[in-house]
Amino acid sequence: MMFLKKILLMGLFATLSHLVVAQVKVLGNVEISNQGVSLGVIFNTGEAPKAKEPSLSPVNFSGHSGQVKGFGVGLESSFFNIMGEEQTTLYTPRLSYQVFDTWLPIGAKLNVLYYTDFNKGSLTIRPELGVNLGVNNYLMYGYNLVTTQSELVPTRHQVTFGFTFPKIR
Q1: Nearest to 59 by CA among 104, 109, 107
Q2: pLDDT in tens, 87-146
Q3: Are strands 106-116 and 145-146 parallel, antiparallel or unpaired?
Q4: Residue 36: left if φ>0, alpha if ψ -120 to 50, beta else—which one?
């Protein structure tokens, strides 16, 4: 148990030192998926974008990168009934870490979620991989790895369209 506490404390201090050294910029986040809608905040520690070379591309492929990289918190809410029950809505708090580069049209995200209807809950881990659709839009696919109460999670597969604001360049 003491070993686990030491590892957790080292991870916490490493995260805090990263946030202190980097200049954190808070970004908003809205996502629409096949499971519902989500609102969140990203604590961006990525590099600020540099001047862009003239281009018609909406994404900065010139080698001057801007990044969205950091921890996020959010809340997801389901659109539809679960298990055929009337008036059933799931609320899902989310912790995440995500990395997007504007010069590379690929992004990754790792989420830890807790699906709940306030009667029971399901702890879930969702890795996501996707593409940038411009400076602040993205499309991602994720797979829910359920650890408890698998019947509570609406679907294992999730496709998400997301929007980050303000623009990062």
Answers
A1: 104
A2: 677 889 999 998 887 667 888 999 999 988 888 889 999 999 999 887 678 999 999 999
A3: unpaired
A4: left
**Quick check: 71 and 96 in contact, CB under 8 A?**
yes
Alpha-carbon distances of 2 from 5, 9, 12, rounded to whole Å? 5, 11, 15
- Residue 42 to residue 33: CA distance in whole angstroms: 18
Distance (Å, rounded) from C-alpha 13 to C-alpha 59?
A: 34
- Neighbouring-strand partners of residue 129: 108, 141
Question: What residue ranges define each of the domains in the chain, with the CATH number in brackets?
Answer: 20-49+58-165 (2.40.160)
CB 123 within 8 A of CB 94: no
At 13-67, the pLDDT tens digits run 666 565 555 567 888 889 999 888 999 988 887 766 555 554 444 454 444 456 7
Q: Across 79-120, where does the E strand assignment appear?
A: 91-101, 106-116
CA–CA distances in Å: residue 1 to residues 5, 72, 140: 6, 28, 37
pTM confidence score: 0.73
